[in-house]
Amino acid sequence: MKRVFIIGFLVALAMSGVLLVQHFKYPGDGRVRKMLAGTWAVSWGDVAHSTNVVSADGTYECRITDPPGGRIIELEGTLRVEDGFLIDTMTRNNLPNVHLPRINRGRIVRANIGEMVVDYTNGKGHPVYYKKVSM
């Protein structure tokens, strides 16, 4: 009886592990592309916050609030998903002396219909958190 319980417990533990891995697994470029359209609240920790409005074709408008300085930064560009990376090609920035186009590339750590986590620092800093606020 004890042996059956232990075997059952180990099977349940293994199944839980498989389900957990599937839950956090990257959903694929195609699914992430379909999820991009909408309005996203973005947080870089305490550094800055923004609202990104992304169209179905990947073009976006972004408004960043810089808490320490209180300035507003307005950006435009295109988002692309390729091989598990979010590629941001910025084509407009209202700050002076910004060389355009500017390309930022981040590894998509996690993505679902309501949130996305992207690491632009190659694991050396804090990831960027995207939370979808409207479709």
What do you see in this structure?
Mean pLDDT is 83; it is low at 18-23. The protein has an 8-stranded antiparallel beta barrel. It is built from 2 helices and 8 strands, in the order ααββββββββ. A hairpin with a 2-residue loop joins strand 4 and strand 5 (85-93). It has helices at residues 2-24, 29-36, and strands at 38-43, 49-54, 59-66, 71-82, 85-93, 102-111, 115-119, 128-134. With 135 residues, it is an alpha+beta fold. It has one domain (28-134): Lipocalin (Beta Barrel), CATH 2.40.128.370. It is globular and about 75 Å long.
Fold blueprint:
Elements: H1 2-24, H2 29-36, E1 38-43, E2 49-54, E3 59-66, E4 71-82, E5 85-93, E6 102-111, E7 115-119, E8 128-134
Please estimate the helix content. 10-25%
Instruction: List segments where confidence is low: pLDDT < 50 over at least 5 consecutive residues.
Output: 18-23
The assigned structural class equals alpha+beta
Q: What's the overall geometry?
A: globular
The CATH class name reads Mainly Beta
Q: Tell me the major beta sheet.
A: 8 strands, antiparallel, barrel
Walk across the major sheet and give the strand order.
Answer: 1-2-3-4-5-6-7-8
The CATH architecture classification is Beta Barrel
The whole-angstrom Rg is 19 Å
Q: The CATH topology, please?
A: Lipocalin
Distance between the termini: 53 Å
Number of strands: 8
Total helices: the number is 2
Order of helices and strands: HHEEEEEEEE
| Average pLDDT for all residues | 83
Task: Please indicate the count of domains.
Answer: 1
Task: Work out the strand percent.
Answer: over 45%
